[in-house]
Amino acid sequence: MNKLLFYIVFGIVCWVFAMPTMAAQETEVFDTTKTESKAKLLWEKIGENVKLGGWIDAQYQYDKSGDSEKSTFQIRRARLDLKGSLSKWVDFRLQADFAPNPRLIDAFVKVNFCKYVKLQVGQFKIPFSLENILSPLDLETADNAQVISALSGYKDVTGISSYANGREIGLMLTGTLASAEVKGEKIPILQYGIGVFGGNGINVKSDNMAKDISGRVMFTPFVKGLTLSISGYYGRYDMLSEGVSTGVDGNRHRMAAGAQYDNNNLMVRSEYLWGTTDFAKYDETRDVFLPSAMHTQGAYLTIGYWFHFGWGKNCPVQQKLRPVLRVDYYEKNLAADQASLYYTAGVDWWPEKHVRMQVNYTLRQQQSVRELSHLFTTMVTVKF
């Protein structure tokens, strides 16, 4: 009986002392205000370090060359872009395009050791030429210059990276080696980028032992907005014959030199690119494919000027409009003497920060075509 009484008293005491703890736990479980506050803080923290965006390009194009006429509508781009920072040392980016077919565009991690050295690993734009740096949202015209498309990995002359968008898989070192104060503002004077790449374009693994090397140096001669650039690309690739791999490697070497001035209103950019590319030539006597070199060159000059204005005195919405002119010269094969010269006039208009409209007219003069040809392009962009 004494034992039974002891157990009863002991149980009551334990229950009394446990009541405050149980009440506190109950409060934590059912205090929705506190839970919502934590969730809000978490999302705010994520929002500070991670950004999700993208854009859609809807394009209409009319092309008249001789007796041939084409009129097309297309969704040219439909991109989703996730980028941010994992810490003050590590940045990342993941970008996909769903038009004309789903594919991964960017997928890389960048480690910021210091301003002099940053290591980037994954799939991203190669350090070659000035125009290749630009996003389609920043490009003044609807299309790249001919030589940029041919030698910077957009519609490569080799045919192996038609949809590479100027990108490759590899690793790259970048950094700012020198800075200076100009009119009270610190600007980079000497920047570099050098990388090792697979050489087959996006979303394709390397198929040979050789790796491609690309590098670019940009110099700002103590004038804000002025950039001088020189870059090179040295690589090898599996040559094709009628679109089929030959199993024989050929050279793919390119050089680019250019200058750009941009003061946020006036923009002037010009570049000269040169390249030598081996193509497969079949030797019947030896029953083998041998490399045959083709030399390519081109240059362009683009000029644009931003005009800023609003819808009205009482409307906070601002818009900007930029007339654009470009002269674009290209020779795919110097031995064939079939140069092409394009003259483009256009307008780049942002009626507000999320909507853009581009209108381009291009007069094309090609030695391989007797008559002048005409290309009209209009593209509407919605950015989110």
Folded structure, characterized:
- Residues 1-30 have low confidence and may be disordered.
- This protein starts with a helix and ends with a strand.
- The protein is built from 3 helices and 17 strands.
- The chain is globular.
- The chain has helices at residues 2-30, 32-49, 146-151; strands at 50-65, 68-85, 90-97, 103-112, 118-125, 167-182, 185-197, 212-219, 226-241, 244-262, 266-283, 288-305, 307-310, 318-331, 340-352, 355-366, 373-383.
- The chain has one domain (51-383): Porin.
- The protein has a 16-stranded antiparallel barrel with strand order 1-2-3-4-5-6-7-8-9-10-11-12-14-15-16-17.
- It is mainly β and 384 residues long.
Structural shape: globular
Over all CA atoms, what is the radius of gyration? 29 Å
Average pLDDT, rounded to a whole number, is 88
Tally of contiguous helical segments:
3
How do the helices and strands follow one another from N- to C-terminus?
A: HHEEEEEHEEEEEEEEEEEE
**What's the CATH topology name?**
Porin
What is the number of independent domains?
1
CATH class reads Mainly Beta
